[in-house]
Design a protein that fits this description.
The chain is an alpha+beta fold. The chain contains 13 helices and 38 strands.
């Protein structure tokens, strides 16, 4: 999904225009009552609802963060190479780019991994999220606000997926819509198919499915704009049967959620083969690689593609793509293809090179990229809702013209969407229930890659308004820190206070694991691309090694990090409790900085009583003598200075460094331990202090306000004067312009 920088542009709630509901079930099917409660349970224990004749449960709306680690044998154990192939798809489809329809056929081969016979299968029909205002997707859009850029669906722009036939060994099967999350009865994004013959333990079933798609106008992730098409989530896709010891399951359990506004996807690994027919003038890109030359037929040009060990398939088609850019990565082992609109050559070239760079980066820091081809797509103007979407070996970046800041975003979006090929793709966590494991961890790893790059505002610079450059993690701070956050980063994607609260899954996760690296590696932790020696680098590599081509949970991720931490595992455990499962802020401040003279004592000094008046007169004489002897020295005096720095902690404690700088250039560095709520530091020096600074390297990014981490003994007026003068000059310019009208 597109990064927070763009997703944060969510508008206020705008109800979509209503469209007539299509029939509750296609021919051969019937409408079923909701399988879940209309009022989903609140946070707490995971609840499932029984479903089907076999009594196997299906995860309900309260399913979310998993706190119990999976067994070592989950999904076939640690993978040396290929995934455990559960669901294989052979897809045949013909795209009509004028009517925006797909006529499709699917041959599904599914293996029952459980010890129980399976009588019913559950499929996602994601396109039905766009069929009417009665879908779960659109009802949540009214509740939470428009999706991303807020494109509305107008009359004639709705989309749907219709089952025409579902066969098992030539026999037609009955099917019905179900609502495992307690969504409206008018939602048709999950369908239960009752088998004619049960699938016995460890046996396979083959289903033949005919379906028809009406693609929606691009408002979220999939659809068309004019003749450009991103065809994603377009075929009936099987849910996941989770077994005991996998993601907290204690009995076999189906995981097949409705299509929610902010959630994405979850599916089994398998092998995919596809034959896609397009008009002759259209360029084509997809998951996988073409296994035969395009073949002309009376219906159009047939593109034959295949990809093993993935869990989804998507493609793009447009008759206006520029000639594709081609290159390689990893010493020629991985082919890179970039499709882009001819009016955006700079974005195309940058996305192409960024893809190559991302392959090298992720391969060297997490694990070798196993696929032989990657296709990057830069969508055209007005198709922005196709931007920032990810599928294994295939993703969309962002279109932009030759503007410096826009092109910087193109690079980040490209790296981010390719990175999903690791976190969403090969690690394949459940994006419905634990979105931070994909969006957030990916955002963190991408930001490490982008850290050497800074963002500026060149337009303002040309106008004479100079802004400081932003590091990439500073940009994440803009969206990831707040005092009273409604939700932690853990949890499912729909049970959130707001779309903005869901957005914290991106930026706050990046900050949480950046700061965990600081906690484990100290203030000199590597800020840029991961190095071998850092805790975070070692932990993420081990996480990928253990869990690629499986489906790890939050508990599996936590256990991996604790194992890598070894005897420091309790630190990681507490961090997860405070910052992953909860949203405890960090807020350390310097409350006071002052330097005062240490005058001679008064009272009985020796055997002579010295009164306050006599002591003060003696001090004045000493100051006058010193000033006469040193007329230009404002930092020393005849007496030493006592500097007091008071620091206070208002939230969760992290170990801090306090650096106090004195007028003679000397520096004192002391510790503010994590367990203290406040501390008063006293320094006796011959000179005054000039400044005090907590966290001088700016490492603790979760801190709510970095401005109160530092304090000057005397206010620095230069910056205020500069901004005042610039504001005054601009005001005079505007007034002069208005006076000339």
């Amino acid at each position: 999904m597109l990064i927070l920088l763009i997703a944060a542009a969510l508008a206020l709630p705008v109800p979509p225009q209503a469209a007539p509901d299509k029939a509750a079930a296609a021919p051969g099917g019937e409408t079923a009552a909701p399988a879940g409660s209309s009022a989903p349970p609140g946070p707490g224990a995971r609840v499932s609802v029984p479903s089907g004749d076999d009594g196997i449960e299906i995860a309900s709306a309260n399913a979310g963060t998993v706190r119990t680690p999976s067994s070592d044998a989950a999904w076939g154990g640690v993978r040396a190479g290929a995934a455990e192939r559960v669901a294989d798809y052979e897809l045949t489809a013909t795209l009509d780019p004028d009517r925006h329809t797909v006529e499709g056929h699917e041959r599904l081969t599914w293996t029952n991994r459980s010890e129980r016979p399976i009588h019913s299968l559950y499929f996602h029909l994601y396109l039905n999220a766009f069929e009417s205002s009665g879908s779960t997707f659109f009802t949540e859009m009214v509740r939470y606000g428009s999706f991303r850029s807020g494109v509305k669906t107008e009359k004639g722009e709705y989309g749907f997926s219709e089952l025409k036939a579902v066969l098992q060994k030539g026999k037609a099967l009955r099917w019905s819509f179900v609502h495992p999350d307690g969504g409206p009865a008018t939602d048709h994004t999950v369908v239960q198919v009752d088998l004619d013959e049960p699938v016995l333990p460890h046996a396979t079933a083959v289903l033949e499915i005919d379906f028809h798609d009406q693609l929606p106008r691009l408002v979220a992730r999939t659809g068309y704009f004019e003749k450009f098409h991103l065809v994603a989530q377009w075929f009936p896709k099987l849910g996941v049967l989770e077994l005991p010891g996998e993601r907290g399951a204690t009995t076999p359990r189906w995981n097949c959620h409705e299509m929610h506004l902010n959630s994405e996807f979850y599916a089994d690994f398998g092998n995919y083969k596809a034959q896609i027919t397009l008009p002759k003038t259209y360029r084509f890109g997809s998951v996988g690689e073409e296994t035969a030359p395009p073949r002309e037929t009376p219906q159009g040009v047939v593109h034959t593609v295949a990809q093993d060990d993935v869990h989804d398939f998507a493609f793009t088609a447009w008759d206006q793509f520029a000639p594709p850019l081609e290159g390689t990565a990893r010493n020629g082992r991985v082919k890179v293809i970039t499709l882009y609109p001819p009016e955006m050559p700079e974005a195309g070239r940058l996305a192409h090179q960024s893809t190559i760079d991302a392959i090298e980066y992720f391969s060297s820091t997490l694990g070798e990229y196993p696929y032989r081809q990657v296709t990057c797509v830069v969508p055209p103007h007005n198709a922005t809702e196709a931007a920032g979407m990810e599928y294994e070996t295939f993703f969309t970046s962002l279109g932009a013209l030759a503007h410096e800041t826009q092109l910087a975003l193109v690079r980040f979006v490209t790296v981010h969407e390719f990175g999903h090929g690791y976190f969403m793709g090969m690690l394949a966590s459940n994006e419905f229930e634990e979105p931070f494991l994909d969006e957030g961890l990916n955002e963190f790893w991408d930001s490490r890659f982008m850290q050497p790059i800074t963002l500026s505002a060149p337009v303002l610079d040309r106008l004479g308004i100079h802004t400081p450059p932003l590091r990439w993690f500073d940009l994440e701070r803009l969206g990831g820190t707040a005092r009273f956050q409604a939700d932690p980063i853990a949890g499912n994607s729909w049970d959130r206070w707001s779309s903005g609260s869901y957005g914290l899954v991106y930026a706050r996760t990046a900050l949480v694991f950046h700061d965990l690296g600081v906690l484990m590696d100290g203030p000199n932790a590597e800020k840029g691309p991961a190095k071998d020696g850092t805790f975070i680098a070692r932990a993420f590599r081990e996480y990928f090694r253990r869990w690629h081509h499986r489906h790890p949970s939050t508990a599996d991720f936590q256990k991996t990090l604790e194992d890598v931490a070894a005897d420091r595992a309790p630190i990681v455990h507490e961090w997860f409790e405070k910052q992953v499962y909860d949203r405890t802020p960090i807020d350390d401040r310097i409350e006071k900085l002052e330097s005062t003279e240490v005058l001679p004592d008064k009272g009985m000094v020796g055997r002579t009583e010295v009164g306050e008046e006599a002591r003060d007169k003696s001090a004045d004489d000493a100051r006058a003598a010193f000033s006469k002897a040193h007329p230009d020295d404002k930092d020393h005096g005849p007496f030493p200075f006592r500097t007091v720095v008071q620091v206070r902690r208002y939230a969760f404690g992290v170990p801090q460094r306090l650096v106090v700088t004195f007028a003679d250039g000397t520096v004192e560095t002391v510790r503010f331990p994590a367990g203290e709520r406040w501390h008063r530091y006293v320094f006796d020096k011959p000179v005054k202090a000039t400044s005090a600074q907590l966290d001088p390297e700016g490492q603790w990014l979760l801190d709510l306000n970095k401005l109160d981490d530092g304090r000057m003994r005397e206010p620095a007026k230069l910056a205020a004067r500069r901004w005042t003068l610039e504001a005054s000059a601009w005001t005079q310019l505007v007034l002069s312009f208005l006076g000339a009208l």
